[in-house]
Each structure stands twice: as C-alpha cells, then as structure tokens.
Write a structure and sequence with these properties.
This protein is 29% helix and 29% strand. By secondary structure, it is of the alpha/beta class.
Length: 249
C-alpha cells in the first residue's frame, strides 16, 4: 500500500495520545510553538515565565507567560512534520485548543525580502505525516489563514498570503520541483505546515501558522541571506509579535 493510501478512518488508533498524556488542570488553552532555542531562552528569562511541564522524548520545557491579560503556553517544537505533529498531539492532550506556529522558511520568490511575513493558505504534501490524518490530495487547505490575516492586519503587520511547499527532505529540494511548486503558487518552502494542519484538523483544534523569509531558492544559486544569523533582538521582536497574535486567538 502506498503512503497516499495510509489514511484509515474505519478503525481507531492503537495508542491514543490522551492515554499516554493526561490533561493538566488550568493548562492554557492557547499555545505558541517556536522552532528556535534562542526564543525559548528569551521566554525562560522573562520574569513571568512559569515552567508548567515538559514534553516527553525531547524533555523540553513548556512555559506559561501572561501577555495582554491572557495566559499563553510557549514551547519549542521539533523541526520536521512527524516531530512537530507528535508534540502537537501531546500538547492537545494536556489541554491546548489553539496553536500558533511561527518560524523561518525558504522563499520561492526572490521579491520576498528577508523577514517578510507569509501566511500559508495551503500546503503541498511532500511529506508522510499528513497522509495518516487526511485522505490523499496534493494540497491541504489552511483553514485558519483568513482569520490570522485579519489579526495581522489589525496589528498593522505587513504580510502576504500564498501556498507553501512542505517537504521532508531539505537537501532534495531540486530545481525542477521548485519550479513546479512555484508555478502552482507556492511562495515558500518549509517542513511542517502540511503535517500540523492535517493533525490539527483531524483532532478538531485550531492551528495557525505564519512564516518569516530567510534563504532564497529563486535564483541561479541558493542564497543564504539571513539563514542562521538572525539577531537576538529580532528574535525577541518575533516572540512579542507571536504573543500579540496569540492573545487575540
């Protein structure tokens, strides 16, 4: 059986996340998920940061902060669809109902500058996790994109909307495949969107995601741009923006 036919809605999963991870009393209902250890260190050093748990496997802390009178959980997720979806499942079981993911991406449009915000509207499923949560299709719709765009507009945060290319294989982003995805309207490439959207929609929770542009694939040679060199002050700004958005979800 091919991976495209892996979705099974006729029988239950054998290992259910809520059997392994128990709901935590008074756990925040909204969470911000970052891929950056530097951002988590910023959260750790906040005077209002409270350690409210750890994720299994990674043993990474889950913090609670209060922002604009709302308690928000903040945690570092894993890079890649399988890991990020697994931690999403665990955090749902603990009590979170709304998630905001944010992180860097490669751009497939050289006109998108470093640091520009992009809201995915659909994700090309070049990964394996999403096929266990939804029937086969080329793209998965990001149902929360319009609401996130409205919030970013209200906060005066410039952004663009468009499709994204989710891949498991960062070092197999071939030029021919990049051109195909760009011609289909993909603005970005990343490694998680299709997986977390499929898992979130299957579990009935709201998953939001926005990206900020770093490297560029839309050139004769790969352009590193700011990849791996974003200043700490910029990352602190990114965190505050994410908390502003999460407080409005």
């Amino acid at each position: 059986m091919s991976i495209e036919n892996a979705f099974d809605n006729l029988s239950e999963e054998i290992l259910k996340p809520w059997e392994m991870f128990k709901k935590i009393e008074n756990f925040p209902d909204v969470a911000v998920a970052t891929f950056s250890s530097e951002i988590i260190n910023i959260v750790h050093n906040r005077p209002d940061a409270e350690n409210i748990g750890v994720h299994s496997g990674t043993h990474s802390p889950i913090y609670s902060v209060t922002h604009k009178n709302r308690r928000i959980a903040v945690y570092q997720t894993l890079i890649g669809g399988a890991g990020s979806a697994g931690i999403l499942e665990e955090t749902i079981a603990k009590g979170v109902k709304k998630f905001l993911f944010f992180g860097s991406c490669g751009t497939l449009d050289k006109n998108i500058s470093v640091g520009n915000f992009i809201i995915p509207t659909a994700a090309y499923r070049d990964e394996g996790t999403s096929y266990h949560y939804m029937p086969a299709s080329d793209y998965i719709e990001v149902k929360t994109a319009d609401k996130l765009a409205d919030i970013m507009t209200e906060l005066n945060l410039p952004h663009v909307k468009g499709r994204t290319w989710t891949t498991d294989a960062i070092f197999r982003e071939t030029r021919n495949n990049m051109i195909k995805r760009k011609n289909e309207g993909c603005l970005t490439v990343e490694m998680e969107c299709a997986s977390i959207m499929a898992a979130g929609q299957f579990r009935g929770v709201e998953v939001y995601q926005y990206l900020y542009a770093e490297d560029n694939l839309d050139s004769e040679e790969w352009e590193r741009r700011s990849m791996g060199s974003v200043h700490a002050s910029t990352k602190e700004k990114y965190l505050l923006i994410a908390l502003d958005i999460a407080a409005m979800l």
